[in-house]
Amino acid sequence: MSMKLYLLLIRASMRSRMQYKMNFLFSMAMASCVHVAEFLMVALVMMKFGSIKGWSLYEVCYLYGIMMLSRAIYRTLASDVHHLEKYLVSGDLDALIIRPIPVLLALMTQNAKILFAELGQGTILLVIAMRALMQQGQIGWEAVPLTVLVILSGAVILFAIGLATSALGFWLTRIESLQNMTEDASQTAARYPLSLYPKWLQTAFLAVVPVGFVNYIPSLFILRQDGGLLFLLGSILVAALSLYLAMQLWKLGLSRYQSTGS
């Protein structure tokens, strides 16, 4: 019942956003330009030097594509979880609370939009990377379903990180700076191999904000057969555990929320 209601609400939200076609097209074009420019800068450097700490251009392209797709799925299906602060500051969360549906479900379906630019570019990067790696004999066709599994588990991890960060807003109210670290900065950094960073930062990306399990850890198994299935299963376990802990933090924060009318 909840899934059926969620799909109904998110379809209605997307339909309302699509009414502003020029704004939609302009936003998609700008997002495409930003992501293309970001990747091209790295690609040009790697084309010059061949590899970075043993990671080839196509391997980095693979990591980049997985992160883009996982993030795009998360932001498509639960966009306003990232924007809880504006609901807390304006008091608009009260309007969601009085609805006869779970607050989180109502929040997830607000202002929903399909991120066509990110989904398209992420898919293109993955196709290019995997095709080249297959031609080199580094991976086989079994990597395709495993990659789909990694993308989905990565979307769950990113959603859990976003939900946990937003839940802290029930105590902190202003969480934009925190989100810049836990979501934006960490996801940007995790588009590249964690081996590029110092040990303390690698630990942070695995144990504190587990973005390393979105793409890097499972990719070690898929691309290099390192760690065995444990690396892949570990990412799925981290996704399940992160989601559980984030949901508990959300429930605790919501129970302590005091509306603007109280």
Automatic annotation (TrEMBL):
Top-rank taxon, per record: Bacteria
TM segment ranges: 55-74, 86-108, 114-134, 146-172, 200-217, 229-250
Membrane found in the keyword field: yes
InterPro entries per the UniProt record, alphabetical: ABC-2_transporter-like
Keywords, comma-separated and alphabetical: Membrane, Transmembrane, Transmembrane helix
Membrane recorded as keyword: yes
Record-given protein name: ABC transporter permease
